[in-house]
Design brief:
Forms a complex with KhpB. By secondary structure, the protein is an alpha+beta fold. About 40% of the residues lie in helices and about 25% in strands.
């Protein structure tokens, strides 16, 4: 799942070398914290959050087979 998020995020940004995904387990489930260059935050979020929502939808759809809950948080 981490690799999927990395591939999608690197395709969206101007600074792909600064894309990082950290994984954390908490009471909500598995949380993937996507970190990008400060100039690329807007590109990952998109207009009115459309790209972020689409990224979260892809991750949620890919997680159906594993019967786990995955969340994506975007940090700069």
């Amino acid at each position: 799942m981490k690799e999927l998020i990395l591939v999608i995020a690197k395709a969206l940004v101007d600074f792909p070398e600064d894309v990082r995904v950290d994984v954390k387990e908490d009471d909500r489930g598995t949380v993937f914290m996507l970190s990008v260059h400060p100039d690329d935050v807007g590109k990952v979020i998109g207009k009115q959050g459309r790209i972020a929502k689409a990224l979260r939808t892809v991750v949620t759809s890919a997680a159906v087979k594993s019967h786990k809950r995955f969340l994506v948080d975007i940090i700069s």
